[in-house]
Structure formats: structure tokens, C-alpha cells
Amino acid sequence: MNRTSVRLADGRELIYFDDAPGLDRSTPDKRDLPPHEPRPEVRHDPLLDEWVAVAAHRQTRTFLPAADACPLCPGGPDSEIPAPGYHVAVFENRFPSLGGPAGGRCEVVCFTDDHGSTFAALPEERLATVAAAFADRTRGLGALPGVEEVFVFENRGTEIGATLQHPHGQIYAFPYVTPRTRRVLDVARDGCVLCPAVAREERGERLVAATENFVAYVPYAARWPVQAIIAPREHVPDLPALGEDRAVELMRLYADVLRRFDGLFPGPVPYMACWHQAPVAADRDRAHLWVEVFTPRRTADKLKYLASAESGAGAFITDVLPEDAAARLRGGG
Fold it and tell me: DSSP characters for 276-316?
């Protein structure tokens, strides 16, 4: 993997991660853009003791452009990536939820320059490059002043609100520990819950797939119609702690799980994928790296919506038996 950092026309950082060295990434960004000065806020909700990001400027972000106007395709007049081609590209989000006075930073991760591809279709060498990019950005963002948690995620499909169709994910460097991570760490005060769960689920009916160092399974109390957790057998806090070989192994299993999701229904399945890592400094010994993938699609033509019980009370109601979902995923859909 080869890493090249450049600047876009408005001063934002763009990092090329290449499968091999020797590629020219010096193509300049010729757009006429004003200086990048994000103005989101972070406000405290005293009722729940949680932080909320307020980013009104995101109302004007790019929304479902035509394929020939995609800002993640390389080299175009409106492209965020000026090179004529790339392997993996990471850049500061032009419409960030964090940054500036709010603290933190938001980045976009493009997995391929092929607009019509998917993460599940990436070749072996690209999976290794993505793994290296994720670990690099986890370390780099975690070293920024005030950053407390680095959260990697992928949204795919208009059904879950993705505004760009090009294969990509995002990384948020939060200036606080997010509510769900805080809750997981609180639960783990008497010992890691994932360690025994991994040992239990790899022998049970909710197992989806496994490799030497990782297990993928549907959780016993799944919240979504189809939901999978991927976790290392060893108690490790984050992606950098895996090392290169295990990180690539994890990416292979992740891609395998995504292919199984795509086999569930006709056409591309909308999903969200979340990479849960230890906070930058606090309680790292209690944190166990885990990845979750879930879809709101409960049948070929029906979606699960988070109505009042889920959205208002936080009380999830599952429409699909987790054991049935696991059986379908084991069978490739």
C-alpha cells in the first residue's frame, strides 16, 4: 500500500491509498472553491446527557446526482478526486457534521473509482488497501486534539438515506464518546460481553460464517430484520490493533457477509455497516472491536420503519426471527 496526501482547491486534505507504489497523484484540483470553513455546532441535551451535532449547512449537500455528475468519480470537473483514476481515496467531507468550532472531523472513503461496483466485489488487493486506509485514519484521526472516538461506517441505498450511489463509506472523528459506545462500555464493567458471545455463537444456530480469527453471527436479540455482527475471537480494541494480516482477514469476511446480504432479495440490498472501535483514550481495556451490518428490508417489497416505539422509546420490535435470518445468510440468501 502506498499513501499520498495532497490538498484540494479549498484546502481540504485528500489522501490516495494505492494498491502499489509508483502512481502519479499530482493532478491538481482546478475547481474555484472558497476556503473550507465548516461551522457545525455540538450542543448538549441535558435530558439524556448526550451530545447532538447541529450542521444546518448540510441542507445544501449534493443529493443523488446523475452518474455523469458524481463527485466521487475521478477526474471530472466537479469531482472531489482530481486524479484520472484511483484505488482508495479518503478526503475531508465538504459538508461535514463535525469540525470547525464543533471539533472533530468527517472524512469520506471511496473504495474504488468504479461507480458501478460494490464493496463486496472488491478484489483481494483492494481489500488489503481498504484495511490499511481504515487503520491509518483510525490512528491519524485519533491523534487529533479533542477527538475521543473514531467511527467508521458505510451507508448503501436510498432507502437508508445515502445521497451518493458511488461505493463509499465515511469516518467520523467525534469530540465525545458516542452514546452507544458509552452504553457498551458500561455493560462491560464486569467483563467483556462479546468474548463469551463469540464463543457461544460460533457453535450455535445463529452462526453465519467464520474464519480462523473472526466469527460472523446474527445476534440473539437482533433489532433489525437481518442483522449480523462480525467480531474477532481475541479481545482487541480497534483496527490498528489487529495488525495487517488479521485486518485483511476481517475485510474478506466483511465482504463475504455483504455478498450474503445481497443474496437475500432481488437487486442491491440497502444496508448500514458500523465499525465499533474503542475510544481514543478512555476504557480501552474494556472495548472489543466489532462490526455490525443490518438492513431495514424485511421482505422483497417491505421496509422496517423505526416508528414511535423504536424512535421515541428506544424499544425495538423485530419482525424476523434471528435464527431464520441466520439460516438465510448461511445459505447465501
Answer: E---SSTTGGG---EEEEEESEEETTEE----IIIIIH---
User: At 301, which amino acid appears?
Assistant: D
Distance CA 214, CA 228 (A): 13
DSSP-based three-state secondary structure for 155: strand
Angle, alpha carbons 45-273-19 (nearest 5°): 125
pLDDT in tens, 264-318: 999 999 999 999 999 999 999 999 999 999 999 999 999 999 999 999 999 999 9
Determine contact, residues 25/2, Cβ cutoff 8 Å.
Answer: no
Q: How many residues does the chain have?
A: 333
Active-site residue, 235 included: no
Residues facing 230 on adjacent strands: 216, 291
Place of cell 452507544: 180
3-state secondary structure of 46: coil
Rounded to whole angstroms, the Cα distance separating 226 from 261 reads: 8
Asked if residues 90 and 17 have their Cβ atoms less than 8 Å apart, the reply is: yes
Residue 143's pLDDT band (boundaries 50, 70, 90)?
Answer: very high
Indicate the angle between helix axes 243-262 and 322-330, nearest 10 degrees. 100
Nearest to 230 by CA among 263, 266, 276: 276
pTM exceeds 0.85, yes or no: yes
- Active-site residue identified among 87, 168, 276, 288: 168
C-alpha 275/C-alpha 139 separation (Å) is: 14
